[in-house]
Every structure is written in structure tokens, then in C-alpha cells.
Design brief:
This protein is an alpha+beta fold. About 35% of the residues lie in helices and about 20% in strands. The protein is built from 14 helices and 19 strands. A hairpin with an 8-residue loop joins strand 15 and strand 16. Helix 1 packs across helix 3 and helix 7 packs across helix 8. The longest helix is centred in the N-terminal third of the chain and has 24 residues.
Amino acid sequence: MALATAAVSLHPFLSRPASVLRVGLRLPPLLLRATSSTSASASPDFNITFAEPAPSKKAPSAQPLVPWIVRGEDGKPRLSTSPPPDVLQAIALAEAEAKKAAKKETLKGPKGAVAAAAAAAASNASVKARKNAPTAPPKFSKAARRFYNENIKEREPQRLAKVLAAAGVASRRTSEELIFEGKVTVNGSVCTSPQTKVDISKDSIYVNGNRISKKLPPKLYFAVYKPKGYICSCGEDSKSAVSLFNDYLKGWNKIQPGLPKPRLFTVGRLDVATSGLIIVTNDGEFAQKLAHPSSNVTKEYVVTIDGAVHKKHLIAISEGTKIDGVMCIPDLVEPLDAQSDTRKTRLKIVVHEGRNHEVRELVQNAGLQVYALKRVRIGRFRLPADLGIGKFVELKQADIKALEGNK
């Protein structure tokens, strides 16, 4: 009776072979035989239930390891469980290319055209957002930096000495002396520190009892054909290169009403006996950048020699000479005239050092006598052929850019 009762509870497994029952249920042989005999009787009226088998506690088999042969730091090959870095990089590049190809495929067809239009609209929106964002110092093009310096940087607080120089009071060094002497007041208090940051549009600044205008003059750039006999000085000397602008500055109020007069000065120097191209401006930073030897801006001179020039003279000039303890070598020495007239000979000499009397020293060191010296080019800007001696012309942005480049 006990075997019959046990067999009654095995209804779901009666149709299965005894081997399956033996493996899955581990029944005793006697019970298996009873089950088999019962199933042979084919009685369909059994109501048998059986609990689900317990889950196996066996851990899933781990993925098989793929060995990689890599070269270690000692140079010897070894087995590794991870791919080498170059293989990983190649896989990453392949996946990136696949993503790009899939993206291109999605842009094809009508739906892709809509997606492309949406992407273009998003790009335009981002451009507009960048334009409307607060302006930060540009980092890329020269035009962007120039725009920032002229339109935004000037509005930020700046050093007092620099503001006085930009306002046309005096040179930066003279402005510092005025500050040290206590002749400058800021908002009613005497200021003796040139490094004090001031905002000319908000602060009240007085120099020797005269108030400084809250507006700064515009930045100006001129090319001047300096005559022989004029000096490069910012004083009121009648033979100063800046004195050539006297008539221009007298009519300043008609040209720029409401703006203070600019304080003009020369960029670099030409000695009193040298004529030719000189730049005049009121932009101190531009002048310092152009005149500093580190800028390596080339300057071309035409030298008229009193007498004949031979090959040995050209070689001697090309080898250079020491000026103030520094060896100066010209970039180019080239004769401009044939040797038919031995009384006067012209040479083209190009230098980049810009040291005092450099061209004259080079020529005299070669045993030649300078009859006349004229500068005809700075950077890529050449003295205009139609500009008369003692005349000047205002430079455009393209001319300013040419001054900073080399030919």
C-alpha cells in the first residue's frame, strides 16, 4: 500500500522514461519499478502533483581566457589575459569609424534630410549663443585680439601711468614721475603709485589741477617720409618728426569733436642724417612690439656710397660687425647700380636687429663712406612712391598687418 500511495503522487512524470526519473528525481529502484508498472497499466485517472526540483548550486562556467603574447618591459615575450594597447586602440578606432558610417547612413533619405536640417539649426543656435555670451579675451586670430584690445580691454581698469599716457598727458615714464611727485589725484586723493588701477570712465583724475577727459583718443597709425635733418623726438622741437603733424593737430577739434588730442610719437628712431620711412602712432603697445628686437621685423635701406664698391666690400658688409658688444649680421647686401659711374654707388641692405646706427656701422666697417641713407621698407610695408618728403599718410588695417610681417 505504501508503494501504491507513493506512485499516486507521481502523475506529471508517469509519461517520462524511468531513466529520466532516476537522474532527475533519484527515486529508489523499487519506486521506479512501481512507477513503470503503474504507467504500463495506463490508468488516466491519477491526480498526482510533484514539487519543482531544487536549483542547481553549480556556478556557471566562466568564459574561456584568450591568451595574448605581448612583449614585457624586459623585452621578452610573455602571456597576457588582456590585448596589447595598440590592439585596443585599433578596436576603438574601428568602432568610431563604424559609428560615423552609421550616422552617415541615417542622414540619407527624407528622414535623414530632416535630421541634417535639425543638426544645422542646432549648430546655428549654438553660434548665436556664443555671440550673445559675455565677451572673453580672444585667443585665436590677430583681428579678434585687436578688436578686443580696442573695444573691450580699454574699458577695464588699468594702471594709472598707462591711462595718463593713453590720455595724452605725457609718456609713460614721464607720467610715472608726475605720480611720484604727488601731482596726480584720483577721486580727490593724491596717488603716488603708478600701479594703481583706475577706470577713466568712472574715476575722477586730475594732473596739476587739470582734469583728465573721461574719453580716450582713438588709436592712430601714420607712415611718415622723414626728411633729412629731422630728429625722432616727442618734444616741441621744430625739427622733430612729430612736428610735421602740427597742422593736423591744430584742426583736431574739427576732425574729432569732443575727443582729447592724441599724443603722437615715433616708433623707433632714424638718426638726423637719415631720411625715409618712420611710423608715428599713439599706441604704446604696438610701438613697443614693432620696435623690440625680439620681433625680428626686417628693415630695408638704400645706402648711397661715395665712391666705388667692389666685391671685397660686399663680403665685408655681409660678414657683419660688432655693435655695443653684439655681433650684427645683415640679412641681405645687394648692389643696385652698375659700376659705370664710380662716383656714387647704391646698395640695398636689409637688417632685423634695429640697433642704433647699425647700417652706418656695417658700411663704415667695410671701409666705405656713406653719402646718404634712406629707409624704404619696414616688414612688408614699403614707403609709398607717391608720398612726398615731409608728408604722412594714415595707415589702414592691411598696412598695419604688413608692418608686423616680414618679406
